[in-house]
Amino acid sequence: MSSPVVTRFAPSPTGYLHIGGGRTALFNWAYARHTGGKMLLRIEDTDRERSTADAIDAIIEGLTWLGLDWAGEPVSQYGRAERHRQVAEELLAQGKAYRCYCTPEDLEAMRAKAEAEKRPIRYDGTWRDRDPSEAPAGVKPAIRFKAPQQGETVIEDAVQGRVVIPNKDLDDLIILRSDGNPTYNLSVVVDDHDMGVTHIIRGVDHLTNAARQTQIYKAMGWRVPHMSHIPLIHGPDGAKLSKRHGALGVEAYRAMGYLPEAMRNYLARLSWSHGDDEIFSTEQLVEWFDLDAIGKSAARFDFAKLENLNGHYIRHMADDKLLMSFIDFLPHAEGGPAMKAKIDDAMMAKLLRALPGLKERAKTLVELKNGAQFLFAERPLPMDDKARQIIADGGRDVLAGIIPVLTHIANWQAHDLETAVKSHAETAGLKLGKVAQPLRAALTGTATSPGIFDVLEVLGREESLARLSDQAA
């Protein structure tokens, strides 16, 4: 019976959770869910100068917003340094590692010689077989792994296929620095082994590390986890993803008004596919996700596709659920906290009534917020340039004519309001648009909004007539 699948997401807290990290976390999470296993979270915080508490908080908040949970408490790699040192000493005791007394000057000379001879820059094994009794006085040694020099290291990768690296191309890497701090490749192996990780899913840029780590696993007599090295994400132009393409922290996408459901769907389609399916639920992703459907080619990040997908999710989300997502979003949006402070039961009811019209025009929650602005506006309403022009170009007279008609409507519902306005337009010899435009400008302060009769109904009789009277005066 095979052991349960254990994946892990292991970010370095030297910055926020970027979009590539978000996709890696999603793939680990989805595979663990698909197989009935679990995903662990390890914070690789060994770079003490660059690791920050704020970045750790941002990573955890970003994962939580994306809806990706993990088993147990996050593990600090730095907190396990003593265990890493212990394994380095074990390798040393078994003759699978050795003390290297090269000084920085020695290593620089080694580099210069390799460059002069046009050879790859690698450690030349100076201390590999020397007796420590020859060590120079006062030099603190590093511990280097005694890498195999003959043969090949093979990685059977679920995405990249069979990867063969000649051992002559891999030098004796440092596993414990002269100051006693363990290095990345040792720490990762020890942590993955001790945490029971069965499947490693990470970026293809770790493929060379995978060879070195495989050698350490075998030297310790440990089982090598299944490996899947997923392609990187590029911009729409095929260049390496940069900030101008969208290489931003996950929190930036939240502030830009993307729904976590849409982000999960979009990120899943970057290098993974299920036939021609473009839009699918998280439940379907979990049901379908497998490693053999991940392609080798770099994915291309496309804001336009993400925005269109997000618009689909907004339009098809149940209004009550969308309202909760909108309210959760407001603290992260420009001007959002002030709007959220105005949400009471009455405003909740107005928003819920307005959502069917608002969401048809919105691709992001920012656009939804901008569309809903008229509900929160206080009289006298601020007007944009187009709205101001509509009022000035005869709109004022139109409003003066329609106000008495609206005042006498008994049933303030969109259908009855529409009937009355159309009747008035016909009587006045005006096209409906010539009446609707000034109404929209006066009621919302803009030239675009949901259906004007829905706007009238949502605002209510008293507020609507007051706004119209402000502009008719």
Automatic annotation (TrEMBL):
Q: Protein biosynthesis as a keyword? A: yes
**The protein's Enzyme Commission number:** 6.1.1.17
Residues bound to ATP = K243
Compartments annotated for it: namely:
Cytoplasm
- In chain numbering, where does the motif 'HIGH' region fall? 11-21
Sorted alphabetically, the Gene Ontology BP terms of this entry are: glutamyl-tRNA aminoacylation
Q: What is this protein identified as?
A: Glutamate--tRNA ligase
| Organism, as annotated | Aestuariivirga litoralis
Q: What is the lineage of its organism?
A: Bacteria, Pseudomonadati, Pseudomonadota, Alphaproteobacteria, Hyphomicrobiales
The gene name reads gltX
